[in-house]
Amino acid sequence: MKILLIDVPFGAEEIGGERETFADVLNVIPALGLAYLAAVAEREGHEVRILDCARGLGWDTVEQEGRAFAPEVVGFTATTPTFSNAVRAAKLLREIVPRATFIVGGPHPTAVPEHAASAGVFDYLVLGEGEVTFLELLGHLAGAGPTNAEDIPGLAYRRDGQLVMTPPRTRIKDLSSIPFPARHLLPPLKVYRPTPASYRKLPLAHIMTSRGCPSRCNFCDRSIFGEKYRARGAENVLAEVEEVVSKHGAREIRFFDDTFTLNRKRLERICQGMRALRPRIPWTCLTKVDCVDLDMLRMMRDSGCWQVLYGLESGDDDVLATLGKKTTVEMNRRAVTWARQAGIRVRADFLVGSPSETMESLEHTLEFAKSLPLDFAHFNKFVPFPGTAFYRQLVEQGHRFDFSGSSSTLDHDALVFVPPAIDPEAYRRFLDKSYKEFYLRPSYVLRRVLGLRTFTELWGQVRGFLAIRSI
């Protein structure tokens, strides 16, 4: 079958609001989820194209691709912020290929299938981890698989006006059995523009080596990959590293797992493989403060790791407890110190504006961030996304949320939720102030200038500085 997979247009104003906050430093990276679906579909003989609009393509391109390719199946991935645009794209393409089957998957349909199905433009919703469900659905549509859609786990669809949801799909146990993402269907890595805080060299390749997060943070949606940690073998990971370097020209790797360091023995084997690469490839990763130690970080540094991203979230212990982090301010400080002692730079995420926040706790977080030797800090606006424990708790308390407008965490003017103890205008002012106070300190600017290692990194930092100045 002819299959068109789309990551829909989502522009700077939709991400950063009317002010287009951080428009010049947005994280524009390949749609790996769609590339995985494309890989399994190609392996079964389907003809697949990916239209990745995240790199700035607009609605004219969607229409042109629909007319030129005339797909039999159109698939979309949708988060809560992008769902309305997925609906718009489906309506547009239904006018062009009315006989095609329209499918949507991703975090939003999985978390709130009733809402996604009520849009009335999708024939099927793929819920949760999508590769096997998508393949079985394609087989059903092609007449070569299950005869009845109701026999395919992990689906939702409307029948006689009612929402039908099949049993949940068992998640894939052996992740190494999945083919590498079909990067050959995506634009070259060099056309993407990751956020300047995330790289030293370009092109940058993102690699997912595990799925599932055992942490139970109240602000995180785990409905796609679940809570059980599943990891690819080290040899399989290193083979993908070799592929993105040799075939796609990557000069740096970003391991995009929630917690890259969770399995120490696997990490040791990956680090051994990264050390053996010639030339040496720099890399970064995401991890948690309770999943590292000084010796581990030194081993990572020796294999080419130059930066870790920690989700510190708050500088207030009471807020950390309500977030479900199971960490403390002191644990956060210790992990940052260890990384610096190991010679690794630190990028930190903070979540500001969760239900228990006060202006005092917000200030604690900002002062805590300024007290640490951080290279980058992100002060992300709290949004109670569907699928999170916070969303369920707040709905039970009587809150109602309208996600039809902007729900981007970078739009400081559109407030989906404001903590009861905080004035909305004071909250908006803090969101802007946090970035300026952290990044425009003379001591910070001097440290960043002295720490630059490549011209590519320098240009990225200039873009970031100008973005902060414009807030």
What's the main sheet like?
7 strands, mixed
Count of discrete domains: 2
Number of strands: 15
The fraction of residues assigned to DSSP E strands is 15-25%
- Compute the average pLDDT: 94
Write a short abstract of this structure.
By secondary structure, the chain is an alpha/beta fold. The chain has 17 helices and 15 strands.
Topology overview:
Blueprint lengths: L1 E6 L4 H5 L15 H12 L3 E6 L6 H11 L3 E5 L5 H14 L4 E5 L1 H5 L1 H6 L5 E3 L4 H12 L12 E5 L2 E4 L38 E4 L2 E2 L18 E2 L2 H13 L5 E4 L8 H13 L6 E5 L6 H9 L2 E9 L3 H7 L5 H14 L2 E8 L6 H13 L4 E6 L7 H8 L27 H16 L2 H9 L4 H15 L2
Parallel strand pairs: 1-2, 1-3, 3-4, 4-5, 8-11, 11-12, 12-13, 13-14, 14-15
Antiparallel strand pairs: 5-6, 6-7, 9-10
Helix pairs in contact: 2-7, 3-4, 8-9, 9-10, 10-12, 13-15
Characterization of the model:
With 471 residues, this protein is α/β, with parallel strands linked by helices. It folds into two domains: 2-165, Rossmann fold (3-Layer(aba) Sandwich), CATH 3.40.50; 194-382 and 417-469, TIM Barrel. Helix content is 39%, strand content 16%. It contains 17 helices and 15 strands. The protein has helices at residues 12-16, 32-43, 59-69, 83-96, 107-111, 113-118, 131-142, 234-246, 264-276, 294-302, 317-323, 329-342, 359-371, 389-396, 424-439, 442-450, 455-469, and strands spanning 2-7, 47-52, 73-77, 101-105, 124-126, 155-159, 162-165, 204-207, 210-211, 230-231, 252-255, 283-287, 305-313, 345-352, 376-381. The strands form three sheets. A seven-stranded mixed sheet has the order 2-1-3-4-5-6-7, with helices on both faces. The protein has a six-stranded parallel sheet with strand order 8-11-12-13-14-15. A two-stranded antiparallel ribbon has the order 9-10. Helix 3 (59-69) packs parallel to helix 4 (83-96), helix 8 (234-246) runs parallel beside helix 9 and helix 13 runs parallel beside helix 15. The termini are far apart.
